[in-house]
Amino acid sequence: MTSKSAAAAARATVYGYPRQGPDRELKKAVEGYWKRRVGADALRDTARDLRRANWRRLAEAGVDEVPTGDFSYYDHVLDTSVMVGAIPDRHRTAVETDTLDGYFAMARGTQDVAPLEMTKWFDTNYHYLVPELGPDTVFTADSGKQVAELTEALALGLTARPVLVGPVTYLLLAKPAPGVDADFEPLALLERLLPVYAEVLADLRAAGAQWVQLDEPALVQDRTPAELDAAARAYGALGSLTDRPKVLVASYFDRLGEALPVLAKAPVEGLGLDFTGPAAANLDGLAAVGGLPGKRLVAGVVDGRNIWINDYEKSLATLGTLLGLAGTVDVAPSCSLLHVPLDATAERDIDPQIARWLAFAHQKTAETVTLARGLSGGTGAIAAELAANRADLASRAGSALTHDPAVRARTSTVTEADGRRSQPYGERAPAQRARLRLPLLPTTTIGSFPQTTEVRTARADLRAGRVDTEGYEERIKAEIREVIAFQEKAGIDVLVHGEAERNDMVQYFAEQLTGYLATQHGWVQSYGTRYVRPPVLAGDISRPKPMTVRWTAYAQSLTDRPVKGMLTGPVTMLAWSFVRDDQPLAQTARQVALALRDEVDDLEAAGTSVIQVDEPALRETLPLRAADRAAYLDWATESFRLTTAGVRPDTQIHTHMCYAEFGDILQAIDDLDADVISLEAARSHMRVADELAAAGYPREVGPGVYDIHSPRVPSAEEAAALLRKGLAAIAPERLWVNPDCGLKTRGWTETRQSLENLVEAARTVRTQV
Ligand code: GLN
Ligand code: ZN
C-alpha cells in the first residue's frame, strides 16, 4: 500500500489495548506505589513508557490510527468521572490534596472512606467503578489526562484518536450517590454533562485531534424510548458544535438495534459497529437504515473478546458487503483489546500447531491490518496471509482436539430424560430428609475455607518441584483434617472439605479435563491491578479420571456427619474461560456437563449424600439483549440438569450463586431443579428470600446470613435477626443457614468466630419456630 492510495484505502485501527505491559509492569508499578516502594514519578514514567511501547507496536504493525486515552492506572470509567469532575464528596479532600492518591482513594477506599462501588463492565469479566451522581452533581471539565496522552502520541509522529466513554453510556452506568433518592436517574443530568464534553472536545481539537471516539456500548442494550431520545439529543448537540474534532461513536458487545437509526441520523461523522456474534445483526440493521452515506464506518470484524484467529474469508465477505453501505469503511477489532491477553507467541508450552489457532492482542492487531489491506487491495494483496489462515482454520477443524469421536457420540445421544431426575422434588425431599436426618435450619458453608499461606506455599512448592506430589497431598490432607475438626466442634451440620486443593474454582477443573489448555502469560485485567488468566476451552471435553472424589471421600472418612461434594457447574466453567467459537455454546456446555456428570455420579458412588454444583456465573453471562435470553437460559439450565440429574432421589443437589440481584432469572433458578440453593443475602437484608417466596420457589433455600466480603464478624444476634427475616418468607423446613459465599479470602480467626456465631444463631432460632 503506497502512502498515496492510503488516504482512500480502508484504515486499520483499534479501540484500546491491554494496559499492563508484557510483564505486567503496570501492576507492579501501581502496587509498588501503594506500598510506597515506587514513587509517583517512577509510576508515571512506567505508565508513559508502556503507552509509548503500545503505540509504537501498533504503528509498526500497520495500524493507521492509534487510540489514546484508553490507558488507565485503574479503570477508564473512573478516569471519566475525573474528566467530568464527578468526584464524590467523601473523596474531595483527598483528590484536592493529591490527585494520584485521591484517584486511588476513589478506587480502593482508605481507612476512613469507602471506595466507589465496582461492577461488571457489560457481560465481560472486566469491572469498572460506578459513578455516583445526584441532583446536586456539578460537572467540571478536566481534559488533562486526555490531552496529555494525545500529545504524547502525536509527539511520536502518529495519527491518534482519543477514546472517551460517551456521555450517554457514562450516565447509564452511574448510580444515585449515597443519600440520594434511589429513584434518581443519572440520565437526567445529560444536559448538564454535555457542555463538559463540549469543552473536552474543544481541548482535544486544540491539541491536534482530527477524530475523537465516544464509546457508547450501553446503546447495544435494550433501551427505552426516553433513553434513545437522550442519545439523539446528546449526539445532536455534540454534533452541532463547531469547535470539535470529527466524532466517531463506537458501539460494541452487541448489535445497536433501535439505537442504530438514532445514531445514523445524528450529525456525527462516523460510527463503529460490532459485526461479531449476535452483533452480526448490525449488517441487516445498517441496510435497513440505508447505510451511512458519506460517513466513516469502523467495522469490528475481529472478535475483540475471544482469543481465536479470525476467519479472513468470512470477514472479507462482511467487509465487502459493508463497502456499499458507508462513505468509508475501516477495520477494527469488535471492541477494545483490553479483554484479551497480550501476545500468543509467548505461550511456548502450547503445542505450536495449536498455538497457531490463537490470536491475542498483538495477533488481532495484525489480523486487523491484514483485513484492511485485503479490503483495499483485494484478496491478491493478502494472498499469503489468506492461505495461511485457511490452513490454520482447516487444521483446527480437523484436529483430534476439537473433534473427539467418543465425546461427539456421547453428546449426540443425550435425551431430555437424561436431564431429568428420576423423581420430582416433592418426592425427593422426604427421601433426602430420611437419609440425612438434619435438624431444622441446618447449617452449612459454601465450600472453601481460608486458603492459608501454608496451602499456597505448598502449591508453589509443588509447581517449583521443591515438594513432590505425595508431600503436597499430605499437606492438603492435614488441611482437610483441620477443617473437618473445626466444623465438627463448631456444630455445623453439613460439612465441606474446604477446597484447599483448588487454586481457583474453574482452573482446578480445567487442568484436569481433556480439551482445556492453560496459558502461561494469558493475563487479562479483571479490575484495577487484578489480572486473571482464564483457561482456554479449546476442544472436545472429557474427563479422564475423577477430579475431586478422593478429597471428598477422605474428608468423609473423618466424620459421621455428611460431607458435601463440591463442583463448579458447566455454565461457570464456560463463563470464566475463553471458549471455543467453532460450535454453539450450547454444544460446548453439554460436553462439559457430561464430564461433570461423571464426577457427580462418582461422588455419589463413593458415598456422598450431598453434592453442590456452583453456578455463580449463571446470571453474569445473561445476553445483553432480552430477546436472546430465553435461548441462553435454555441451554444453561439444561446443562446444569444434565450435570446433576443422574443421582438417586435421596442424594441432595445443592447449587450456589453469589449475588443478590437475580429477579430476572427466577424461573431459570427453578428450572435448575436443584434441591437446595444458597445465595448472597446478608447485605441486602434477606431480600432474596422474599423474592424467591413471592415467585413461589418450592425448594430449600440458604440465603446467606454472614457477609464474607468483609473481615467483620457478625454477632449471633445479628445472624439470628437475619434468619428470622428469612423465616418470614420461607418455611422453617426449607430454610438453611450459611454464609453468603466461600471463605477462601477470609482469615481463620474471623472465620472461626463467625461460623460459631452462625451456629449459635441457628440453635437459638430453632427453639423459637
Ligand atoms: N464453592 C466455592 C467456594 O466456596 C464457591 C465460590 C463462588 O461462588 N464464587 O469458594
Ligand atoms: Zn459465591
Automatic annotation (TrEMBL):
Keywords: Amino-acid biosynthesis, Metal-binding, Methionine biosynthesis, Methyltransferase, Repeat, Transferase, Zinc. Pathway: Amino-acid biosynthesis; L-methionine biosynthesis via de novo pathway; L-methionine from L-homocysteine (MetE route): step 1/1. Zn(2+) binds at residues 656, 658, 680, 741. The keyword Acetylation does not apply. 5-methyltetrahydropteroyltri-L-glutamate binds at residues 24-27, 120, 576, 620. Its EC number is 2.1.1.14. One of its GO terms (biological process) is methylation. Catalyzes the transfer of a methyl group from 5-methyltetrahydrofolate to homocysteine resulting in methionine formation. This is 5-methyltetrahydropteroyltriglutamate--homocysteine methyltransferase. It comes from Streptomyces melanogenes. The gene is metE.
